[in-house]
Specification:
The complex is a heterotrimer. Chain B is mainly alpha-helical. Chain B is built from 14 helices and 2 strands. Chain B is globular. Chain C is about 35% helix and about 10% strand. Chain C is elongated. Classes of the chains: A alpha+beta, B mainly alpha, C mainly alpha.
Chain lengths: ~260, ~425, ~160
């Protein structure tokens, strides 16, 4: 009796495990395999922002909202432009009204007048999704609704996202938000529909100053990729280990 | 678009200085309620296991009650998550395509496992009672008796053997389940702490101590709630008996009850000390190491949230009840006040973690304030407002009232043993 | 041996079985590990194509050149050469198939995005021609006097 019960339990357990295992997709590739998979891909999208060239016109934000159908008057946005004004007293004044959608035509920051003689430096910094190599947002998605494509872009499955907001919390750059109409997480995807057709992202297309450029790091002849490879570029918040792929030229230490 | 686009969080987020455009308080009151309610579940279960596993005989009465109460709390642990989801109809997806690198993915699985353990344990504890009821109701007239009998027949699942041997096995099974349940309960709650502790982007949340702190305060709040509900129910029953001219004197009830309560209170104090020590360790460590984020954290903790953290949570929610419980000549009223304060303190701790973690911008250059919606004017302001939270708080008591009709966890006293 | 002990276990196994069966029906066929590993590449494969099919709105100046060659030649010869047509004319989407006239933006605010004076000498903004909004013909649209296709040219 005891024997048969033990056997029975054993069978039950092993058959349950056997039926669960293939379904749960527990396949974890080794590190080398993963690296090889990325290297094999012909494309690894990256972005180059030259903060020296940005004039803060905000046309990139306008274009992005229209191109990607983000409600125009909602304060959330896939890309935004920040203004930094560092004054002589060591203070840093930062703002980005409506994400810089309407540009910066006023010198007041949050209604506060800043004496021009007191300004040490002032500049604009465009921000967008960093399409990290190790995206924290993807790691924490409980249902596999956000993922990294073979060409390095992180996408969101609008038909599968449950809207828990964990990815929004996990992103150190604050690029994610809930789409006001779709009610799912949303963020910049380098205009995946455009770059996969050989076009430029909308923000790049609409930037008159060359402050924003897209690059394919795996293409040895890509001029922008070569700037990233040969010049001194930096990234935002590399302390989080996410390996961001939006590279910056002329990034100031004050930039958050 | 029929629905006007609503930016989630805009209703209750007030920004100050520079905050990234997409930052809002996305995790609001329901995410405060979620670890609070799971904590109560875990705590209630641990309390019942103290009797079932470790044979703390004087906890027997409260143990049976807290076991059934933890069942009533169980669905309510999942309710806040459901209310918080932007796509509630997709709530089952974590079970369909679990992405196990996410702490949330485990929720469905751990929660289901835990629910099964609690249900099974109750089944083993009460199976004898179910069978007795089936026999007792056999000859009882009326439709309601027949219906009750059907419910018990379903509950008994066809196991009618109540011989001494069978009951002995039931007891053994219940003990094993209670023992297995403790780590699962701790895991259920520890991983709620992991959900927060593993968010590297959030300077306040990221700490390996977070899961342990969560477990400790969970047990504290669970024990407190069980004790409190137990006292209230006992007093209510004593009051009713006195009114109907019962023979039992109030003093007698208090005597038996006081013993259970003081025993439970000792465990409560122990876990409370552990919880506070860990929280203080975490705080001291942050201040001492003073990483990049410390400037903004300090301005939040010692400035904007000082009232919430040091006055409401540590003083009113921890120190005062601690003194009320340990000082000599404790009365029942004092215990009740202490328990209420403990429950409040743990709630404030959850609040300060969840809302406090979003009180500052990821840019470390600005702040966000949470203005909880009181009067709802949309589904969202109801779900993530005061009324949503009240709904979550009241549900377990309603559920307990229903469950208790079939599984009388206060049976011994109602029979007047 | 008392077999009734196992009854809750049957319920549990039944529940797990139910979930496994439900998965067969509810999980899309192409859901799985497609990328580099389970951590970053667990997803529904067809979603990639869904994103690729997202409609393009900004068509770029090459598409404008197909019909408006003259205008484009003029702009290209001016200091506004780097400015994309659609920044002012609006995204052309399927123009002229769907809409004949694009929503041209001639507001002062549009010009001010680049040409409002901000006293930031070391920013790129300083290199652009600028006006002080408060002091320069406040009530007029810039295009009343300046031709955006060739800013040097005065509109009569």
């Amino acid at each position: 009796m005891t024997c048969s019960r033990r056997e029975f339990l054993k069978n039950t357990v092993s058959s349950t495990v056997a039926s669960v295992m293939p379904l749960s997709a527990f396949t974890l590739l080794s590190h080398a395999e993963a690296a090889a998979a990325l290297a094999e891909s012909k494309v690894r999208w990256a972005f180059l922002v030259d903060t020296n060239k940005c004039v803060g016109c905000g046309l990139c934000v306008t274009a992005c909202k229209k191109e990607n159908e983000i409600p125009f008057d909602a304060p959330v946005t896939r890309t935004w432009v920040e203004r930094y004004v560092v004054t002589k007293d060591g203070e840093t004044h930062i703002d980005s009204p409506m994400g810089g959608r309407d540009g910066f035509i006023d010198d007041k920051i949050r209604g506060e007048e800043i004496d021009p003689d007191n300004i040490d430096k002032a500049f604009f910094v465009p921000k967008l999704c960093n399409q990290c190599d190790n995206p924290a947002c993807v790691q924490v998605c409980p249902v596999g609704a956000t993922y990294q494509t073979d060409d390095g872009v992180v996408l969101i499955d609008r038909n599968w996202c449950i809207g828990c907001g964990y990815c929004i919390m996990a992103c150190p750059y604050g690029v994610r938000f809930f789409h006001p109409e779709k009610k799912v997480a949303d963020k910049c995807n380098f205009c995946y529909h455009r770059i996969s057709k050989g076009m430029q992202p909308a923000c790049v297309e609409c930037c008159s100053f060359g402050a924003r450029r897209i690059a394919n790091l795996n293409d040895p002849n890509d001029p922008v990729a070569n700037i990233i490879k040969t010049e001194r570029v930096s990234v935002l918040k590399d302390e989080y280990g996410t390996k961001p792929h939006v590279f910056y030229l002329g990034l100031d230490a004050e930039v958050r | 678009m029929i629905e006007e686009p609503v930016v989630h969080g805009i209703e209750w987020t007030v920004k100050e200085l520079f905050v990234y455009p997409n930052e809002f308080i996305y995790w609001s009151i329901q995410i405060v309620m979620y670890p609070y309610m799971t904590g109560l579940v875990a705590g209630a279960f641990v309390l019942s296991s103290l009797y079932h596993v470790f044979g703390q005989k004087d906890l027997k009465e409260i143990a049976q009650f807290s076991l059934v109460f933890s069942l009533a709390l169980l669905p309510v642990a999942a309710l806040p998550l459901l209310l918080h989801l932007q796509q509630p109809t997709r709530a089952m997806e974590p079970l369909l395509t679990p992405h196990f690198t996410s702490a949330i993915a485990a929720f469905g699985i751990v929660f289901t496992t835990y629910a099964l353990i609690v249900l099974s344990e109750i089944w083993f504890v009460y199976r004898k009672y179910f069978v007795e009821q089936i026999h007792a109701l056999k000859s009882a007239p009326g439709l309601s008796s027949a219906m009750r009998r059907t419910v018990y027949r379903v509950l008994a699942m066809g196991a009618y053997d109540v011989s001494d041997g069978a009951i002995k096995i039931d007891k053994k099974a219940a003990t094993i389940l209670a023992a297995v349940g403790i780590p699962v309960a701790c895991f259920l709650h520890g991983y709620a702490g992991f959900i927060f502790g593993s968010v590297k982007a959030n300077a306040l949340w990221m700490s390996p101590l977070m899961p342990v702190i969560f477990i400790m305060s969970a047990v504290v709040s669970g024990i407190a709630l069980c004790m409190l509900t137990y006292i209230v129910i006992m007093e209510w029953q004593a009051f009713r008996r006195r009114r109907s001219g019962g023979v039992i004197e109030a003093g007698e009830i208090k005597g038996a009850e006081a013993e259970v309560i003081s025993k439970a209170a000792r465990y409560l104090i122990g876990f409370l000390i552990a919880a506070i020590s860990l929280e203080l360790l975490d705080l001291i460590f942050r201040g001492y190491t003073a990483m990049k984020s410390w400037d903004i954290l300090r301005s939040v903790m010692y400035g904007k949230d000082f009232m919430n953290i040091f006055v409401l949570q540590y003083t009113l929610g921890n120190l005062v009840p601690f003194l009320l419980l340990v000082l000599p000549r404790r009365t029942l009223l004092r215990t009740v006040v202490a328990l209420l304060l403990v429950l409040f303190g743990v709630f404030m701790m959850r609040w300060n973690v969840v809302i406090g973690g979003q009180a500052f911008s990821l840019s470390f250059s600005g702040y966000m304030h949470y203005e909880i919606p009181v009067i709802p004017h949309s589904v969202e302001t109801f779900k993530e407002g005061v009324f949503g939270a009240l709904m979550v708080i009241t549900t377990p008591f309603v559920l307990f009232w229903i469950i208790n009709k079939f599984v009388p966890s206060l049976r011994r006293t109602t029979e007047g043993s | 041996m008392k077999w009734h002990v196992l009854r809750p276990l049957w319920v549990a196994i039944g529940l797990v079985g139910l979930i496994l069966v439900a998965r067969q029906f509810l999980v899309p066929d192409d859901f799985g590990v497609h990328g580099r590993n389970f951590t970053y590449g667990y997803y529904r494969l067809s979603n990639v194509q869904e994103w690729k099919d997202f409609p393009v709105k900004f068509q770029g100046r090459e598409s404008c050149a197909e019909c408006h060659e003259e205008n484009l030649a003029k702009v290209n010869a001016s200091s506004h050469a780097p400015v994309e047509c659609e920044n002012c004319h609006g995204p052309s989407v399927n123009h002229p198939d769907d809409v004949e006239l694009l929503p041209l933006n001639t507001t002062r605010e549009l010009c001010l995005r680049c040409h409002a004076f901000l006293d930031y000498p070391n920013s790129a903004r300083a290199s652009l021609v600028s006006i002080e909004d408060r002091r320069h013909k406040r009530r007029y649209e810039c295009v009343k006097c300046h031709n955006p296709h060739d800013p040097k040219e005065e509109v009569e």
